[in-house]
Amino acid sequence: MNDNPIRCFEAFDFSPEAKAFIHSIIEKNQTRLPQARWVQPNQIHVTLQFFAALLPTQVNQVKLIIQNFFPLIECFPSTLAEIGAFSSWNRARVIWLGFDHRSGEIMKQATQVFNEECTKQGIAVDRTRPFSPHLTLARLKNPVSILPQQLFQPTCYTTSIRQVSFYQSTLTPRGPIYSPLITIPLKEVK
Asked: Is 101 part of any domain?
């Protein structure tokens, strides 16, 4: 790494089986909303915190926070529940997949503690919008008005969240490239 600011994000990862299920939802919805830019299977994750520009020393600090904090969190079941839209169905810019209440609360709490630790270490975190646990399926360049029934709504699917990763995000004309800087397993439940 040089001294240039680095785009990074911290995220919960999914198993290959869960990614395949999520990708099947994407495939069923691509023809229903062709103007959207759909997430590639290798980019499926739940972003907990995004950092637009970290210095290399800050990247190392964040890695240490992740190494010290996330092994204390137990693996947890998470049910992928329903498709939604930000900011609303009338002005959709992001199509997302939501989680059951329990796993959403675990994600919120983990993010809150992580953000507090970053702040203690002098690393600025974005608090302009409250964290809303979701998995981005697609983005739209221009907002569109759609009805929920226009999209394929999946049946509930339960998976286990077992690891967290810290990724570098490199923007390219073909879309972002995510490179893991560190991946940490969560605590195994006995």
From this structure: yes
Residue 1 is assigned to a structural domain of this protein:
no
Of 10, 20, 66, which is closest to residue 186 (Cα–Cα)? Answer: 66
User: Is the pLDDT assigned to residue 1 strictly greater than 70?
Assistant: no
Edge-to-edge strands of the sheet including 163-170?
A: 46-54, 6-12, 163-170, 177-185
Q: Is residue 134 in a domain? A: yes
Q: What is the pTM of this model?
A: 0.91
- For 171, the domain range is 6-185
Q: Does residue 72 belong to any structural domain of this protein?
A: yes
Alpha-carbon Rg of the chain, whole angstroms? Answer: 17
